[in-house]
Specification:
This protein is an alpha/beta fold. Helix content is about 40%, strand content about 15%.
């Protein structure tokens, strides 16, 4: 039995998205910037994809800038906003940002920018009060992740974004894990910039988008032909964007039913493992991504059992999950996200994440819970010594 439970890492492309990509490669392969009929056909496909992605977040067409993925969208938001200034300013992020925001923030620090990393509570949530206190006269941008990919916590974006807006600072959110799973409406959300990724919502890898509120000025990261309203030069990867658009359109249609179904399966898995004392749920249990389950293994011997070893054991049983900690040089290191939430080094090496998707069934949940119990029992049992 093969069960994939790593949908926060990537999702399998939908057949409809693959068909849209194949059609773009075979029939609409022109350069969208060309004026002849081949370019015109390609431009039609491009703008249809833009319309489909824009509809997912209720944005104007000219507010959607296509990128090569969520990482580029985050970089364009953070670095593109910072490049407007001749002198270093102040940036606010959270302590649980994706590395696609954290690393650009580090780059800005090296250029003289002041960066404030807001702390989070034990559930991984940012306090609006902390944001208010952190704002300065020269705060240029606030960037807070919407749905945390490792522990599933949803941030109070409506409140945080309004605080930033009232102060006069731009507000960006990485909504990569949220788009296609929860409703997003940039007409009502107080956001200036919002990042999306195709391969998190059953589109192809290598495509993403940044919503840029009309009137917000960014400077591009790439010089070239001035595509994507001058913000992302380079001939657009039309097949990937066609697949992205199709996936976005289907996600918008199916979201009301699918979100409730995923929440039910998520809660079923949490309930079936509630009596496993070695598994402590991580992240906010109420304000949480609908498809996300995560734990820390508290009784583990960190030298023998950690998140990565559990991933390997579950994989041997035919179940794909992921570890919550990074790996450097083959050795597990404590998760910065779990550390920011107050976990010690050992516990922060023992995070696991199980994320559900459109192919996940109740039978998959039941089987996974049983197998995880067995894997934990074997992993945490005392080593048996052979008789002398």
């Amino acid at each position: 039995m093969q069960i994939y439970l790593d949908y926060s890492a990537t999702t399998p492309p939908r057949s409809e998205a693959i068909a849209a990509m194949q059609a773009a490669m075979a029939e609409q392969w022109g350069n969208p910037s060309s004026l002849h009929q081949w370019g015109s056909r390609a431009a039609t496909v491009l703008e249809q994809a833009r319309s489909q992605v824009a509809s997912l977040v209720n944005a104007p067409l000219d507010a959607i800038v296509f990128t090569a993925g969520g990482t580029e969208a985050d970089n364009l938001a953070v670095i593109g906003a910072a490049r407007r200034y001749r002198l270093p300013q102040h940036l606010i992020i959270s302590a649980v940002e994706h590395s696609a925001v954290e690393q650009p923030a580090q780059q800005l620090e090296q250029m003289g920018w002041q960066v404030t990393r807001l702390p989070v509570d034990a559930q991984g949530r940012v306090s609006p009060t902390d944001l208010r206190l952190a704002l300065r006269d020269n705060t240029a941008l606030v960037s807070i992740i919407y749905g945390q990919s490792e522990v599933g916590t949803l941030q109070p974006i409506e409140v945080l974004g309004q605080i930033a807006r009232d102060h006069g600072a731009l507000f960006h959110t990485d909504a990569v894990q949220v788009a296609g799973r929860l409703p997003l409406d940039v007409q009502t959300l107080p956001v200036d910039l919002l990042s999306i990724s195709s391969h998190k919502l059953y589109g192809p890898q290598g495509a993403g988008a940044l919503y840029v509120r009309p009137g917000v000025e960014l400077l591009p990261l790439l010089g070239g032909g001035g595509q994507e309203f001058g913000l992302r030069s380079g001939t657009q990867g039309l097949p990937a964007l066609a697949g992205f658009g199709m996936a976005a359109a289907l996600a918008a249609t199916e979201m009301p039913h699918e979100t409730l179904r995923l929440m039910s399966l998520r809660d079923r898995l949490f309930a079936q493992l509630a009596d496993v004392t070695e598994l402590v749920p991580s992240g906010d249990r109420r304000d949480r991504l609908p498809h996300h389950v995560s734990f820390c293994v508290t009784a583990a011997d960190g030298d023998r059992v950690n998140g990565r070893t559990l991933v390997r054991e579950m994989n041997l049983a035919g179940i794909g999950i992921s570890a919550g900690s990074a790996c450097h040089s083959g050795k597990p290191s404590p998760s910065p996200v779990l550390k920011a939430m107050g976990y010690g080094d050992r516990a922060a090496r023992c995070g696991i994440r199980l994320t559900l998707g459109r192919h996940t069934t109740a039978a998959d949940i039941d089987w996974t819970a049983m197998v995880l119990r067995q894997v934990l029992h074997r992993a945490l049992s005392p080593l048996t010594l052979s008789p002398a």
